[in-house]
Structure formats: C-alpha cells, structure tokens
Amino acid sequence: MSERNYGMPTLGWYEKAISRGERVMAQVDMFGGKEARDNALETVAGNAGEWMPRALKAIQNIRMATLLPITGTWTGEDIRIYVTNTIGPPHHHNAWGALIKAAITQKLIVPTGQYRPMKSKKSHARRTPVYRLKGSLSERPVTGQKYPGQYER
Hints:
By secondary structure, this protein is α+β, with helices and mostly antiparallel strands. Helices cover about 40% and strands about 15% of the residues. The chain has a single domain (about 30-140), classed as Arc Repressor Mutant, subunit A.
C-alpha cells in the first residue's frame, strides 16, 4: 500500500484485483523448488536407516548379479525392482527418489539424457530417465577389442 490521498493508504493493483473478485496468480518462487526438493529427499534418506546404504551397495553389485546391465541401460523403475527383490522395499516410497539422487551423486549411475516409458501399470507409461551403470560397456569407448567378461564364440 502506498501513502497518497492526504495520508490515507491506497490499494495496490493486487489488492484491487482481489477486491474485485479476480483471480490473481501469486508470484512463483523460481529458486526455492530445487532447494525444497533436496531438503525433502535428504529427510527421507535420513529416515531410511540402514536401507539406504544397503540399497546403494545393491546398485554397486548389479553388474555382478546379472549380465543385463553390463551392456544395457536401466531406468529408476528397473533399479527399484532389482533393489526390492534384493534387499526389500524402503520405509517410504519417496526413498526411491532419494536413492536415485544419491546414486547419481556418488556416480554409481550416469544419466544418458534419454527417456523411456515405464512398464508398471500404476506408472501409466510415463516417461522416465534412462541411466548407465558406472563402468558399463556402454560407457567405454569402442576400440575393436573384446571387453573383459565377453563370451567367446
């Protein structure tokens, strides 16, 4: 409110629009979203107890457990299924986001920039990021040499 009209405050544009019953869009906080997300993920990860380090260890061990990820790519959904079958589900479903963020931060997985539709019915085929496992064959340059562990014919 500004001081005008003989010291009497006048309404600003926002207050005038509200008094007329108009819908006014509030100013969006352009920089608080990522901070709020990171704080929430940190809280969920902290509440996960021993599940989080065990899940990160399971992601590290994916290459030893199956041949698929050696040359392939994984989505968060694929990782969720693998980790659930290996060590069980987390205390809260939001822990999956915290796990993926931690795995990226620790460079266990690397985003490829690609997206793929999810497979589970409850996900409604929404697009999800695709990741490479650190040290996977798809991360290494092709040199014409056979990679360690590759089957001979």
